[in-house]
## 1
Amino acid sequence: MAAGAELTTGRPGRLAANWRGLNGPARLAGVDLARGLAVIGMLAAHLLVTDDLVWTDPATWTGIVDGRSSILFATLAGISIGLLTGGRAPVRGERLARAATGLAVRALIIWVLGILLIATGVPVYVILPAYAILFLLVLPLLTLRPVVLFGIAVGLGLVTPWVYAAIMTLPVWRTPGVEDASLLIGWQYPFVVWSTFIVAGLGVGRLDLRSGSVQTALVLFGAGVAAIAYGLAPPEGRRDAAASASLVDAVWTAEPHSSGVLEVFGSGGFALAVVGLCLLVCRPWWRGGVVGPLGWAALPLRALGSMPLTAYAGQILAWAIAATILLGSPSDLSGFRALHPFGSFVFWSIVGCTAWALLMGRGPLEAVVAAAVRRTASRIVR
C-alpha cells in the first residue's frame, strides 16, 4: 500500500519535472525548435527527391533542405557548446578544464556512434564523424568573446573554401578506397570548411539569446548575409562540375554541398536567420513567461529538438531495419524512397520524442552520452 502510494505520487512528480525540463526558464525553447526543424530537414534531404531550389519558384522550395539542414545542424552544435560552457559568461579554471575534457570525451563517443551508423549500410553520409572533429577543433576557442569568434568565422568562411578546393585537386583522391576511408572523418561535411559554422554558432551561444534585440539582429543579419551571397551566385548551378572547371568555379558557388564561399555565407546566414526566427517565435508575450503561445504550439517540434542525437541515430537505425525487411537490403536508396517513408518517419519521430520527453525526460542517447562524459571528465579532472 505504501509502495503503491509512493509510486502514485512519484509519477506526477516525474511528469512535472520533465515538463519543467522541457518548458522551464532554464531552457531556450527557440533553440530546441530550431533543432527540431534541422532534424526534419535532414530527414527530408535523406528521404525525399528534391528539386534544385529556385527561390522564385515555390514548386522547388523542398530543395531548401538540401545542404542547409546539415549546416543549420552544425551551427546549432556550436550554439549548444556555447551554452554548455557558460553562455554569456564562459567557464574558467577547473570548470573550463572539466568542460573541455567533457567535449573531448563527447567527441570520441559521437565518432564511435557515427561509425556504427555507417556500418548499418544506410546510403546516407553520416555527419557524426565530422561533428566529432569539429568538437575538438573548437576546444581552444571556448574562452573567446563573441566579436572575436565572429571575426574568426568570417575569416574561415573566406579562406577555407579555397583550401578545400585545393585539397580536392590532389591526386590522392584518385586512389582506390580513399573515398570510403573518408567516411571515417565525415569528409562529405569537410571539417576544414565546416569549422566556420561551429565557430559562428559558438559566437551566437555567447550572446544574450533571451534578448529580443539579439534575436531580431540574428534574423536581419543572417537574412541579409544569405541574400547577398545567393545574389552573387552564378546563374547556372555547377553541382556536377567538369574536371576542367577552374578553382574559381569550384569556390565561387552557392551550390549545396559544394563548400564554396557563397554556400558558406548563404547557408550560414540562412542558419543564423532560422535560429533568430525560432527564438522570436518562442519568445513569451508577457513579462515573467517562459514560452509564448506560438512556442507552446510548437511543443512537439521542440521535444524532437531536445534530443537531436537520438532522433538522428534513430531514423538511420529505423531506416536500416525497415529497408532490410521490406527490400532485403538497407542500401537501396531509390527503392526505399519509392515507399514514401518521409511522412511516417516525421510523424513517429515527433510522437516518440514528445512521449519520451514528457514521460522519461532527457533523450536516451543524450542521457547515456551525458553520463559517460560526466563520469570520465570527473576522473580525468580532479
## 2
Amino acid sequence: MSLSHRRLPLPRRGGHVIVALLTASLALAGPAGAAPRTDGDGALRARLRELVERPDGPPGAIAVLRDGDRVRVVQAGVAELGTNRPPRATDHMRLASAAKAFSGAVALRLVDCGMLSLDDTLAKRLPTLPDAWGSVTLRQLLNHTSGLPDYSAAPDFVDVIRADPHHVFDSRHLLDFVADEDLEFAPGSRFQYSNSDNIAVALMAEAVTGQRYEDLLASKVYRPLGLTGTSLPAGYRLPEPYLHGYDVEPGAPTEDVSTLFGASGSWASGGLVSTPADFNTFMAAYAGGTLISDATRRQQRTFVDGASEPAGPGTNKAGLAIFKYTTRCGVVYGHTGNTAGYTQLGVGTPDGRRSLTVSVTSQVNQGSNPDLLAHLRAVEEDFVCALLKGQGPHSPGH
C-alpha cells in the first residue's frame, strides 16, 4: 500500500522478509495527446541507467518532461522483469504520497468556490472527531502542522496489515485508529508529516459537498484535466498495463510487490493509481496552471520548514499540499511519494508551462537506503535542470 513513510516487516515468499512502506484541466495543461519526443536525451537516459544498473537499484525508471506542447519521455530498464518491455508513459503505477497533492487540489478548488475556508476547523466541519483535535484548521492539515497522530503508525492498524495486507478498510474510519490520542503538539507550532492529515482533508471535502471523495476527484481534477488513467481503487489490483514495482535487496531474490497491499488503508493519503502521462499533466496544472485561482495559489505557496517524504531535489519547503524544491537551476513546486515498489517525484514550474515526473519501480527513502536516495535526488535535480534550462547532467554548473 502507500501510507507515506511508515515501514513494517512483512512475510516474503521463500522465507525472506520485505521491509514494506505503509504510506506511500479545462485545457489547463498541454494537450494530453501531445506526441512524445525522445531525441537528444542520451545524457539523461544514461543517468536513469545508472540508477537501474545499481545492485540495489530499481528495475525500471521513466521520466516525462513537458514544455508546452512538447513532451519528452526518457526511460531505462524494464516495466516487468523477465520481459524486454520498456516503461511507458501510459503504464499504471502507484502514486504513493504524491496522492496528497490530489487531495490538496480538491480542497483548494473548494476554497476557490467558497465551500471551504483555509481557517475552517475540524470542530466546525467534522464535529464527530475528538474534541481535542477541534482547533486544527484545514490550512494546518494541508501543510502538516496539525499535530494529528498518524493512524498508519497505530499498533492496531499495523496488526491488521500484518495479518492481511489485502484487508479492505473502511477508509472513512481510518482516523478511528488514533481517536483516543491527543494532538502530538500545538497546531501550527511545527511541521510533522502525517498520513492522518490528508484523510481529514478528504473528510472535510465530503462533509461540505455531500459527495464521495472519489467523485470529487473525478469532477474537480480528472475530468477538467482529461486524466483518463487515474483512479482511487479500494483493492490491491492494478489496471493493465502497469509498471511492476519491486522489493530490491542485494543478495536476495527481487520480488514483485506491485499488488502486495490494498489501497483502502491509504485512501486520500496515498491510494491513487495513475500513469506517468497523467501525473505529469496534473502537476503542470497543480503547480502553476489555472487549476486553482491566483489568490488561493498565493496561500498555497506560503511555506514552512519541512521536507516531502522522501525528500525531493534541492532544498525542500512545505506549502499547502505542495513542496517548494529550490535546485541549482531554479525553483519548482510539487510532491514526492514512496511505497512498496514505487518512488515518485512530480513537479511543475511556477507558470505551469513546464512539468516533470520521475517514477522508479522500487521504494527509495532515507530509512531504507540513504545512499540510493542521494543518488536519486541528484538524478532528479539533473532532470529539473533539463526542464528549466535545457541542461543535461554534464552542463556547466553541475
